[in-house]
Amino acid sequence: MTEQNPSSENSAAETHPRSIRSFVLRQGHMTAAQQRAIDTLWPDFGVDYQAAPLDLNACFGRDSDKVLEIGFGMGVATVEIAKRLPQKDFLAIDVHGPGVGNLLKLMEEENVNNIRVMRHDAVEVVENMLADGSLGGIHIFFPDPWHKKRHNKRRLVQAPFIAKLLPKLKTGGYIHLATDWEEYAVQMLDVLRGFEQLQNTAADYAPTPAYRPETKFEARGKRLGHGVWDVVFVKK
Ligand SMILES: C[S@@+](CC[C@H](N)C(=O)[O-])C[C@H]1O[C@@H](n2cnc3c(N)ncnc32)[C@H](O)[C@@H]1O
């Protein structure tokens, strides 16, 4: 929680080049209200990237169950979930500046304090900032489907990344994925089934847990006639 301005393009995407990323950095339009939310709330709720372990209990000021959310978009579902589960704390990561501003703005409007926000590549945060066994849950909702065959390699939910993610989860912790892209849903199920330390909570796709509200992407998918699939596995 230092002075770095998250609205600048000072992103690790440039400083730590990696060949294949799960996102494309878009400039995006930042509204005045989103920018104001960053200017005023980042010192309290923003977490700057550092290539060193983060003390999550210190970060939230309490010893609680921690949930990591990767790719929160505009943060609408994030805030709703944090309200529904006030006893848990949420580390929410995205690379998209206006979304960061929007999430902070919603937190203020809804008086939600159990979220900390990062603007960075979540892959690097997982690699460098999270201690093993530090998470009670992981949420990845409607990750970019990268539906063209030649772009499939950019998908976040692939075995090498999940292999990096799983040690961060404590025993009994869960990973919850959701998508409206059927072929990605199949991939999600396949990838998670490939880890013997994970147990599916359902025969295949899970009923949507009560804490997850419908997101903008989900509503759009449903309008287009897509289904929505939730995948929830627990660490043995
Ligand atoms: C399709 S949007 C879904 C947003 C939100 N979960 C929802 O359901 O509305 C995917 C989001 O993931 C973010 N994202 C993709 N790869 C990421 C990464 N490696 N680290 C952080 N955020 C990422 C994108 O910037 C984008 O906001």
TrEMBL record:
Keyword S-adenosyl-L-methionine attached: yes
Pathway given in the UniProt record: tRNA modification; N(7)-methylguanine-tRNA biosynthesis
Catalytic reaction equation(s): guanosine(46) in tRNA + S-adenosyl-L-methionine = N(7)-methylguanosine(46) in tRNA + S-adenosyl-L-homocysteine
Residues noted as binding S-adenosyl-L-methionine in the record, renumbered to the chain: 69, 94, 121, 144
Gene Ontology cellular component annotations, sorted alphabetically: tRNA methyltransferase complex
Superkingdom, taxonomy of origin: Bacteria
Key words, A-Z: Methyltransferase, S-adenosyl-L-methionine, Transferase, tRNA processing
Listed Pfam families: Methyltransf_4
Residues annotated for substrate binding in this entry: 148, 180, 215-218
GO molecular function list: tRNA (guanine(46)-N7)-methyltransferase activity
EC number assigned by the record: 2.1.1.33
Transmembrane segments: none
Location of region: Interaction with RNA: 150-155
Family to which the UniProt record says this protein belongs: Belongs to the class I-like SAM-binding methyltransferase superfamily. TrmB family.
Known function: Catalyzes the formation of N(7)-methylguanine at position 46 (m7G46) in tRNA.
Protein name from the UniProt record: tRNA (guanine-N(7)-)-methyltransferase
Lineage: Bacteria, Pseudomonadati, Pseudomonadota, Betaproteobacteria, Neisseriales
Gene: trmB
